[in-house]
Specification:
The complex is a heterodimer of chains A (333) and B (332). With 333 residues, chain A is mostly helical. Chain A has helices at residues 2-13, 17-28, 31-48, 50-57, 100-135, 138-153, 156-166, 173-184, 187-201, 204-211, 216-252, 264-267, 279-307, 312-315, 320-332; strands at residues 69-70, 76-77. Chain A is elongated, with a radius of gyration of 24 Å. Chain B folds into two domains: 2-105, no CATH class; 109-325, MetI-like fold (Orthogonal Bundle), CATH 1.10.3720. In chain B, β1 (79-82) and β2 (87-90) form a beta hairpin. The longest helix of chain B is centred in the last third of the chain and has 39 residues, at 241-279. Classes of the chains: A mainly alpha (333), B mainly alpha (332).
């Protein structure tokens, strides 16, 4: 009895290689998810390489170019196509003349950075609260579940909007937006994790681990976390595009990331006025948002399918001889 | 306490407790911020005298719990505000007074609420009809070209932020094609037809992204139901395809649709803020953004509480509807 327990424990704490490998295989089996993953990778690369790309262009996102603006015509960029040329690859911003390409690629940094960091916060808090509620005493569970209900009752956009009003102006806005989204948006993660932990708690191997004298922390780490990984990762993958939209929305309303820091949502604030003179001023940030959220959503769907045990048959991977063949190929690659 | 009555009572009690806790948290978060509360409350444009007056009005020397008690009193029996020279009575439910305009917060909300309700409720009709309809259609036409097109369109729909859809709709429909004038809010009671025409674009902007989520959910739930044994039995008995899909499979999607609708009220309210700002509709959202920008704290707090009230209410109603649609919930 104790031998099998040790074996089970060792198995759970061993590197998650088989699970991770199966996950990648199942993800790659979906063409749409693969394409989305490539787009996301490209976007991350652009965000990371923003200083390099703008150096290549010879511009930066904050310098004003009044000479490129026709102030007589209300601030329209000089030249055809909104000032597109060898110096300014995508033209310049109306009224300020700031380089659009530079603002767009630096905007990717803000967008992805805020969304990812906020997701990490949401998932971290949500998982901690959910696991504690499910494993704690009845009163702890009551308290945390009630707290979760309350946080779910407060709409993220509204609370974020309101909170941004009272924070002193000196606080760095990008960090602030991340914190606000992360600290308010953990409710659903906590709910999912609590429900999943309760299910896992009833399973034999977890009960056995508890009976063999492991403390709660050991049980949580070795027996519960592996079972929680799939639902948490699935939900986190859905949170990222949602957070991108929220950051863009807050910045669009003028209470999120503030100039001179570029953000896609903020770029759209004034874009509707200029759509005839400089259509790319509207189309570029809107398109960037659309592509990013779409790619992340498709990738999230793919992650869900890859982690869903019921989806195995649909993907036609993960069973039988084909599986062994693929695994072999993978280890050599 | 058991059965449906007990469930209703428990749910109502839960909603009241949640609302109470929300009010405490919102109050504490906004009125116990580090820094000069009077200055923040009054806003950056206030003169030192005004700040002083605000500090007196808020009784900042009192401990926080006492101040919250006064706030609760105002909510249930009304409150008096001294404006220096005269005393102004704010009848219950009193949410406080704006420091920018001097108007009572509840008055401001009452004048803005019809606009926001028109927007959100109208959009809800659009997203339910459009979303569930698309979901049913794509579950029915599974594997055909039309289903693939619908799936692609709904996927694109979920990926487009509300304000991007709104911007594009406004520019294309009002600007380029000039099919509609730029929306301007008309009261429903003044002219129902103009009301609907002017809200058409805002409704679509707000509803499309939600409709996409409903389409995906309805499709998934219906496909699951269609694969179940009782559906096969219906088919074996010769029940027509239209009845199988339209009546029996749709019933399986009812409960998840209700649950999602409740879940999405919060995000729809957020979307309403964007839609109102974009189209210049004089609703609660636009007022909230304004209040946030000028840091008019009583207005911000009052609006957050009122919105919280509606979200909690919507959740409670949805839970009850969910229980009606699926009686097993009551037992849980």
């Amino acid at each position: 009895m104790s031998e099998t327990l040790v074996a089970a424990g060792a198995d759970a704490s061993a590197p998650a290689a088989p699970g991770a490998r199966r996950f990648w295989r199942r993800l790659r089996a979906q063409r749409a998810a693969l394409a989305a993953a490539s787009v996301v990778a490209l976007l991350v690369l652009i965000a990371l390489a923003a200083p390099l790309l703008t150096a290549l262009e010879g511009q930066d996102p904050t310098t004003y170019h009044p000479d490129l603006i026709d102030s007589a015509r209300g601030g329209v960029p000089v030249g055809p196509l909104g000032g597109i040329g060898a110096d300014h690859w995508l033209g310049v911003e109306p009224q300020t003349g700031r380089d659009l390409f530079a603002r767009l690629v630096y905007g990717a940094r803000v967008s992805l950075g805020v969304a990812l960091a906020a997701t990490v916060l949401q998932v971290g808090i949500g998982t901690a609260v959910g696991v504690t509620a499910a494993l704690g005493s009845r009163s702890v569970d009551q308290l945390l579940s009630r707290a979760t209900d309350v946080i779910v009752a407060m709409p993220l956009m509204i609370m974020a909007l309101a909170l941004l009003a009272i924070v002193p102006a000196g606080f760095p806005r990008t960090v602030l937006v991340t914190l606000v989204i992360g600290l308010i948006g953990w409710g659903n993660t906590a709910k999912i994790v609590r429900a999943q932990t309760l299910t896992l708690k009833g399973l034999d191997h977890v009960a056995a681990a508890r009976l063999s004298g492991w403390n709660t922390l050991q049980v949580a780490r070795r027996e519960l976390l592996p079972g929680l990984a799939a639902p948490v990762i699935t939900y986190a993958a859905l949170l990222v595009p949602m957070n991108i939209s929220v950051e863009a929305a807050l910045s669009f309303l003028g209470v999120g990331v503030k100039p001179p820091t570029p953000s896609w949502g903020q770029m759209l604030t004034a874009a509707d006025v200029w759509y005839q003179a400089a259509p790319q001023y509207l189309l570029l940030p809107a398109g960037a948002l659309f592509v990013t959220v779409l790619a992340l959503t498709v990738l999230g769907d793919g992650v869900r399918t890859a982690l869903d045990p019921r989806a195995a048959s649909r993907l036609r991977v993960g069973t039988g001889r084909g599986d062994a063949g693929r695994t072999g190929k993978e280890t050599t690659a | 306490m058991s059965g449906f009555g007990g469930f209703l009572l428990r749910r109502a009690l839960g909603a009241v407790i949640t609302l109470f806790v929300v009010s405490v948290i919102v109050y504490v978060v906004f009125y116990a911020t580090p820094g000069d509360v009077a200055q923040i409350t009054c806003g950056p444009r206030c003169s030192p005298e005004q700040v002083h007056q605000v500090a007196r009005q808020l009784n900042l020397d009192d401990p926080l719990h006492l101040r919250y008690w006064h706030f609760l009193q105002g909510l249930f029996i009304g409150q008096d505000f001294s404006t220096g020279t005269s005393v102004e009575h704010c009848t219950a439910p009193c949410l406080g007074q704006s420091y920018q305009s001097g108007r009572q917060v509840l008055d401001i909300i009452a004048t803005k609420l019809p606009v926001s309700l028109s927007l959100v409720l109208g959009a809800m009709v659009v997203w339910l009809v459009l979303g569930v309809g698309t979901g049913v259609l794509s579950a029915w036409r599974r594997g055909r070209l039309s289903e693939r097109v619908l799936t692609a369109v709904t996927l694109a729909g979920t990926a487009t932020p509300v304000f991007v859809i709104g911007l594009v709709l406004m520019i294309v429909v009002c600007g380029e094609l000039q099919l509609l004038p730029f929306p301007q809010y008309v009261n429903l009671t003044d002219d129902p037809e103009q009301w609907a025409w002017n809200l058409l674009l805002p409704w679509l902007s707000l509803a499309l992204i939600e409709a996409a989520a409903f389409a995906r959910l309805t499709r998934a739930a219906m496909l699951e139901t269609l694969a179940e044994d009782h559906i096969r039995t219906f088919r074996a008995y010769g029940v027509g395809e239209r009845a199988v899909v339209g009546r029996h499979a749709l019933r399986g999607a009812l409960a998840p649709v209700i649950a999602l609708n409740a879940n999405n009220v919060g995000s729809a309210v957020g979307g309403a803020v964007l839609t109102e700002t974009l189209f210049g509709l004089p609703g609660i959202g636009q007022e909230l953004v304004h209040a946030v920008k000028v840091v008019d704290l009583p207005v911000v707090v009052g609006m957050v509480l009122v919105i919280g009230f509606f979200v909690v209410l919507a959740n409670a109603v949805a839970d009850v509807l969910y229980a009606v649609a699926d009686r097993r919930v009551v037992l849980a």
